[in-house]
TrEMBL record:
Pfam families: DDE_Tnp_IS66. InterPro entries: Transposase-related, Transposase_IS66_central. This is Transposase IS66 family protein. It comes from the Bacteria. Transmembrane segments: none annotated. Residues 1-108 form the Transposase IS66 central domain.
Length: 140
């Protein structure tokens, strides 16, 4: 965990820098840390039973390990995709909750509620009255 913390500390220090600077710093400072992580992973995979929970977790990490190097080859790429994960999380949660609508009418009601919450998201609470239907002129 300390090695991963170090990677994030390096990236925090270069956040906002131009891509060429970020790439240079990452190759100089982050690449050696990833090499140490590789050594750690190889050492512990050799010692852990492949069928144990730890062995399975280490095999999973090793399977996706190559993708962790991507940020070392392009200064425009972030170290992780947390921003995207936070953005799509509400969509995934709504999809999961909609499974429990029960029937078509329940799903329709769920869709209306989800739409309303999406509309008011980011709207100041002090201005919530502006969204009420009777505060809008009806056009015929």
């Amino acid at each position: 965990m300390a090695l991963i913390r170090d990677l994030y500390a390096i990236d925090a220090g270069i956040r906002g820098s131009d891509p060429a600077t970020r790439l240079s710093v990452r190759q100089d400072r982050s690449a050696p840390i990833l090499a140490r992580i590789d050594d750690w992973l190889a050492h512990h995979r050799a010692r852990a039973s492949a069928k144990s929970p730890l062995g399975e977790a280490l095999a999973y990490i090793a399977q996706y390990r190559e993708g962790l190097d991507r940020f070392l080859t392009d200064g425009c790429i972030e170290i992780d995709n947390n921003t995207v994960e936070r953005t799509i999380r509400p969509i995934a949660l709504n999809r999961k909750h909609a499974l429990f609508a029960g029937h078509d009418a329940g799903a329709d009601n769920w869709a209306v509620i989800a739409s309303l919450t999406a509309i008011v998201q980011g709207h100041k609470q002090s201005l919530i009255d502006d969204l009420l239907p009777w505060n809008h002129a009806v056009t015929v």
